[in-house]
Target: Phosphoribosylformylglycinamidine synthase subunit PurQ
Amino acid sequence: MTARIGVVTFPGSLDDRDTRRAIRVAGAEPVALWHKDKDLKQVDAVVLCGGFSYGDYLRAGAIARFSPVMDTVIEQARAGLPVLGICNGFQILTEAHLLPGAMLGNDHLHFICRDQKLRVENADTAWTADYTAGQEIHIPLKNMDGRYVADRRTLDELEAEGRVAFRYLDVNPNGSLNDIAGITNAAGNVVGLMPHPEHAVEPLIGTGRTDGLPFFTSILKKLVNA
Model:
């Protein structure tokens, strides 16, 4: 049997179908999960996809964090379930305190959509093992509230513990502190990032490269070899 990876759909999610396709391209079985349903259908991992859950009212991810499905996601993530948060999913993970820090509006106050160069800083997580540390990749980026912030103590801990997973290169597109594009929790099972790897799994779409595919092959290999 192949690994089953759930993708949560919230009101306002945009990239749930793209994420399910990326999972299928990687060779795993995508499982649709609904925000009102606490049952994760015995999936082996969960992706919180991009979009504008609940219209980004209050703050991006602030309402989605209280959806019934998140009770189970939080509980199981703390028990070791692999969870990936992409863009809005990253925002939800910070609101749920599964990852530290917060996401604020871009420093230039505009929505941004571009191909973004990144450097892989941590290739030891459940979602990044098919990369190598220091590898430079190109992943599509699209957000309005993508500026990662945290207090100095948290930033120092992330840096010292190697928990910055990805860093922006060439240009910081949103004012994120320390050029942070993505981070991981201490256990390495929860990863969040603003760029969209699901849009870079086939040469025909996105950047024209497949730099995002290793997110999904990494977790597939971990689950199959577990």
In short: The first strand starts at residue 4 and ends at 9. Helices lie at 16-26, 68-78, 88-95, 152-160, 213-224. The chain has a mean pLDDT of 95. The chain is about 25% helix and 25% strand.
